Amino acid sequence: MATMNPHITERRHIPDRRAGVMHTSAQRMHALDWIAMVLMIIGGINWGLVGMMNIDLVATIFGEMTTASRVIYALVGLSALYSIYTLSKMAGDRYPH
């Protein structure tokens, strides 16, 4: 037991990769960020279906231009606007002036 494997002993002194990660508000996703992302995915799938197969899934489920479908469309649009804000906030955190 006079010698130990040097690779094992050196490895103990390497800091954990996760320890150096800074958790800023731009890197953590809060509930509103998740909701916005889910709504944008729903909107993207809906537009993909409209473009490829001429099927408006929101209108099929909730009715064409009913109050419920208009609320869904509005929420998808608001989530896209919120995501623009989030993106600009993330870019500001990454590239400070």
From TrEMBL:
Keywords annotated in UniProt: Membrane, Transmembrane, Transmembrane helix
One Pfam short name: DUF378
Transmembrane segments: 31-50, 70-88
Secretion signal, residue range per the UniProt entry: none
Protein name: DUF378 domain-containing protein
Organism: Noviherbaspirillum pedocola
Taxonomic path: Bacteria, Pseudomonadati, Pseudomonadota, Betaproteobacteria, Burkholderiales
